[in-house]
Amino acid sequence: MLDDRDRKLLTLLQKNADMPIGEMADLVSLSSSACWRRIKRLTDEGFILSRVAVLDRGKMNVPLTIYVLIRTSDHSTGWTDRFRDAVAEIPEISEAFRLTGNIDYLLKVVLPDVAHWDMIYQKLVRRLNFSDVSSYIAMEEMKNTGFVPTSYI
């Protein structure tokens, strides 16, 4: 079970994983060594999966976000495995979800422009059969924190 200090450390790390240990320790009222041990424990216990750098998508020339809704009539394990493999091999697909309801899969694709979406689409349809593929261009990013709430544990 996590305590308030653990939750606060997780929140601080989500905001800036490069924050110096001493600064984090001060913010959670711990010594630097006690703070480091807690972060190590949180990592060892799997609460912290990795530390990553968040890149500026504009500077990386992938400002466009397209959400893709996919329906398939084939729900076999073999089809799903081929779909997972295809998604894993396309770096422009930054997120992929299997859904309940009328839509089977949701993809988040980040690209330089719409023309690149057709290349990704062609890669997918060459490998798999779909009942329907619908794409939606995001006009404005209103919120994108990547944060996970820490208050439920």
TrEMBL record:
Residues making up the signal peptide according to the UniProt record: none
GO biological process: regulation of DNA-templated transcription; response to amino acid
InterPro entries to which the protein is assigned, alphabetical: ArsR-like_HTH, AsnC-type_HTH_dom, Dimeric_a/b-barrel, Tscrpt_reg_AsnC-like, Tscrpt_reg_AsnC/Lrp_C, WH-like_DNA-bd_sf, WH_DNA-bd_sf
Protein name: Winged helix-turn-helix transcriptional regulator
SUPFAM superfamilies (alphabetical): Dimeric alpha+beta barrel, Winged helix' DNA-binding domain
Organism this protein belongs to: Pseudooceanicola albus
Domain HTH asnC-type: 2-63
Keyword Transcription regulation annotated: yes
Keywords on record: DNA-binding, Transcription, Transcription regulation
Molecular function (Gene Ontology), one example: sequence-specific DNA binding
Record-level GO cellular component terms: cytosol
